[in-house]
């Protein structure tokens, strides 16, 4: 009996020791895969990118002890193996995001000609901290190239040639250069659209073709160069625009008859199935425009038909959605007289349509009503 009691006491003590260890100070919960890379370095700063494949390794015992990760980011300093206590922290997030994921930050206000060390970190609920491998970089005393933007000429209905002048090279090696441009930002950056020049950067002039432009839209352009020391831009920004494209079908008025399909490239009723851009008010359906074969439409509202430019059509929110034209349901009617519709045909031509006169909804069993008089204009393909 005494032996049994002793054995029981030993088991209880072992259990208590094990239980206490579950609440002992925790070990760091290190990210399973954590990388950092240095993307750019300049005189007083750097851009770093962190990549984490798995923030929360599936270690049951460790999770019970330490919990989930509550904070992660970068830590950097001038000493190798920087830590939260002996380094500068850039906190990125506070919760477990879906993995894998990447995050990018800038480190600023650095000293010139100085070596720095950076790595990712993660902190869990128990207070444990894990670090990724270290990356190193050195700031430099850069002299940057000088750039300017020159003549801009249109070479097609959708592109332009832009001259970039490299006036001097400096000592920051240029990895790529060209033109950045935008229709909304009058000081465009490489985060907007950009076109890269061919060949290695040397002093001289380079012609860069900028494509994918819309006629009638004003663009802003300036030269850029990407170097190890950072991205540099020309001081001046130049605005330019392409002219309106040629008209394919001049302004034309016609009647869209009840239950018929229409080709909007030409503004004609068609009988060949597959060539129509829309059906107007089909049998036993709601009055309205039914897009066909990929043609898309957008309601611009009661605006001046003649003042609607090609650029307005190209940037309209075109869709293949049905456009309600029922006068019976006045709240849903989108085709009141004077309304302008933007469209792109199944052949890829942009155009505009003016609702001149919309007849009453057709009464079932009668021969009257249901037609709509319109005016259209279509532009040639870009």
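^ structure tokens above, recovered residues below v
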């Amino acid at each position: 009996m005494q032996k049994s009691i002793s054995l029981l006491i030993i088991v209880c003590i072992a259990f208590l020791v094990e239980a206490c260890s579950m609440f002992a100070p925790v070990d760091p919960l290190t990210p399973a895969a954590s990388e950092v890379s240095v993307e750019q370095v300049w005189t007083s700063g750097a851009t770093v990118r962190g990549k984490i494949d798995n923030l929360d390794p599936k270690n049951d015992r460790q999770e019970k002890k330490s919990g989930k990760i509550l904070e992660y980011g970068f830590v950097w300093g001038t000493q190798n193996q920087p830590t939260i206590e002996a380094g500068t922290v850039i906190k990125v997030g506070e919760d477990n995001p879906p993995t894998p994921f990447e995050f990018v930050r800038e480190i600023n206000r650095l000293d010139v000609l100085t070596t720095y060390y950076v790595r990712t970190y993660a902190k869990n609920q128990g207070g444990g901290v894990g670090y990724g491998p270290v990356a190193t970089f050195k700031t430099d005393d850069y002299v940057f190239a000088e750039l300017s933007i020159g003549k801009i000429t249109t070479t097609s209905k959708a592109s332009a040639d832009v001259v970039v002048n490299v006036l001097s090279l400096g000592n920051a090696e240029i990895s790529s250069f060209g033109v950045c441009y935008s229709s909304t930002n009058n000081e465009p950056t490489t985060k907007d659209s950009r076109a890269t020049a061919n060949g290695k950067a040397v002093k001289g002039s380079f012609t860069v073709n900028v494509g994918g432009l819309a006629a009638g839209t004003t663009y802003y352009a300036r030269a850029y160069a990407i170097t190890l020391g950072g991205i540099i831009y020309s001081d001046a920004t130049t605005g330019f625009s392409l002219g309106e494209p040629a008209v394919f079908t001049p302004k034309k008025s016609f009647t869209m008859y009840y239950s018929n399909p229409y080709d909007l490239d030409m503004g004609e009723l068609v009988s060949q199935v597959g060539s129509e851009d829309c059906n107007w008010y089909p049998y036993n359906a709601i009055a309205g425009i039914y897009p066909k074969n990929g043609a898309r439409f957008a309601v611009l509202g009661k605006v001046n038909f003649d003042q609607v430019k090609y650029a307005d059509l190209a940037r309209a929110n075109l869709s293949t959605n049905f456009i309600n034209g029922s006068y019976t349901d006045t709240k849903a009617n989108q085709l009141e007289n004077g309304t302008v519709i933007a469209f792109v045909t199944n052949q890829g031509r942009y155009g505009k349509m003016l609702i001149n006169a919309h007849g009453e909804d057709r009464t079932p069993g009668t021969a009257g009503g249901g037609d709509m008089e319109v005016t259209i204009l279509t532009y040639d393909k870009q």
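The chain has three helices and 26 strands.
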